[in-house]
Amino acid sequence: MPDALSGVQAARRVLVISDTHGLLRPEVLALVPDADVILHAGDVGRAAVLDDLRAATHAPVYAVRGNVDRAPPLSGLPHALTLELGGVMVHVLHDLHDLDLHPADAVSRVVVSGHTHTPRLGEQGGVTYLNPGSVGPRRFSLPIACAWLHVNAGKVGVEPLILAP
User: Fold this and answer.
1) Distances (CA, A) of 162 to 29, 57, 118, 137
2) Order of strands, edge to edge, in the sheet holding 80-85?
3) Which one has a higher pLDDT value, 156 or 2?
4) How far apart are CA 160 and CA 9, in angstroms?
């Protein structure tokens, strides 16, 4: 299991994005100042995306490596990471099929993934599974989507956001 990162325990409003594929939309940048933490579930596409997110906020920005993040410095991103946010353990990876742990055994209450570009929210065995969708270039007829993850004192809430249907 990846090491849990601490220092963001008080996080309440987490902006969850994925699959930017090198495109950082103005609609996403407009959300960044309201975030306590930003999670990027991979397929960043260009290091400038993370640089621009960090420049737009004082909130920590965490990202995992997606299948298109093959060249440095993006190839150096972790495959997965586990964070404690607002008293909740959150596990982040790009492709849910690569999940190599049982979240409940690892005390993770939330699993964030991307890859499919399809927004998805579900719960299984007390674990919330969130795929925010894609905020990068449009694929097929899928929406441009991300999500707010609200975590506080061990409670979890998810607010899906469709930026463009």
Assistant:
1) 15, 22, 11, 14
2) 4-5, 80-85, 88-93, 110-112, 127-131, 120-124
3) 156
4) 22
Q: Which two tokens stand for residue 24?
A: 């950082």
Output b/e per residue, 40-78; b: 16+ Cβ within 10 A: bbbbbbbbebbebbeebbebbbbbbbbebbeeeebeebb
DSSP state of 32: G
Of 4-13, 25-34, 55-64, 115-124, which range is least confident? 4-13
DSSP 61: E
Contact 62, 7 (CB under 8 A): no
Radius of gyration for the chain, computed over Cα atoms and rounded to the nearest angstrom: 14
Q: What is the pLDDT of residues 81-128, one digit of tens each?
A: 999 998 899 999 999 999 987 766 767 899 999 999 999 999 998 899
Quick check: 6 pLDDT over 90? no
* DSSP 8-state class, residue 134: B
* Residue written as token pair 């737009």: 56
